[in-house]
Amino acid sequence: MACFLVPMTEAIVTTIAQKVIESKEKKTGMKTVTSADGFTMEKTPFSKKLGWLNKMLWGGSALLAFEHVWHGEVVPYFPFLTAASDPADAAEMLHEMGTAGVAMAAIVTVVWIGMLLVSKSLEKRALKAIPEAK
Amino acid sequence: MTLLVTVFAAAITTAMWYKRQPDGSMKLGILSWMFWGASLMWLIDAIFEYAELGAAYFTPEPADMLNDLFLGLSVIALALIIWIVILLIWDPKGVIKAKLLKKKEQ
Known about the structure:
heterodimer; A: 134 residues; B: 106 residues; elongated
């Protein structure tokens, strides 16, 4: 009914967070990692990694919003959500936002956290592999 | 069906993005992220629907399947439009900029 509003709200928060972190990173400069033999590599900034989450949340909620338009649950006139005009439907809509909507935002975030962990281990592995490549 | 169509789109665009690396001028990553985000969200939708319908979830009516397929293809069309607009605005290869500047010189 309006489950896409939950990941969209998260997308707004993470986009603001990304802008703040990005400006801080610009001030502090690029983070580098040095291996045991003195080889230096640039680390992917956290703001860029947060961008992955932003793109998934914005893209996913935009396409889901389209699905709601398709099913007539979102309309281009006030109150925009058809369920909002009826109290019983509104309660059902809020319940759906609290269950499916929260679960959607959570799964995207969990997958992103998994990607962070994988990228961290890949960075470590790449750093270890440098002396062998030499 | 919509989930299936979106997952296929996500996998294909990710493979295309990977093949073009390190050249990111086509901004295929944006398209890929968009499809993966939508796929994950529709997966949750599918889980909730399965919890409600049980095994009947896997045997939809032909009319519903056709409608879902039509929706899935429309979703891909919308995502492609969003991507092409971003690509043209971003203009990583400077094609639009060059065209506009050329016009100015005439």
